[in-house]
Amino acid sequence: MIMEIIWFILVLLASYFFMEFVAWFAHKYVMHGFGWFLHADHHSREPEHVDSFFEKNDSFFVIFAVPAMLGYIFGSIYALPLIIAAAIGITLYGATYFMIHDVLFHQRIKIRMRGNVYFRALRRAHGMHHVHFTRHEGECFGLLVFPMKYLRMELKKS
What we know:
The protein contains seven helices and no strands. It has one domain. The N and C termini lie far apart (47 Å). It has helices at 2-34, 36-39, 47-50, 59-77, 81-105, 117-129, 148-157. It is mainly α and 158 residues long.
């Protein structure tokens, strides 16, 4: 029983952290590639995009939710707890993504997080990503992992 719990936790954590790579890869090669038609409004400064609460880019939340939903469904039907653990990891990463990207970065819900050096560096790195308005330029495609230069910049300011 203890080993099942340990494996469950390990798979959950592994799927959570693997999602950072999936998010980076999908952002760089899908969203800034063939999925640009859904992601372009996220980089737009046009009033119809800036003033709207929803974006075409929000479609990616649904797309990324599909593997988790399938994990919950098939993990439950076939009594596969490790599949459910992976689905929980994906879901938790999605919740983290929403809280950091949509709440902290883009202020869809007005919450301020000042003082935390990591979050300030994370926000700076994401801001550098949004300096670019075309699909072919860009940097900092991940969410939680970013170049250390941004952390060093924020540490100097502290």
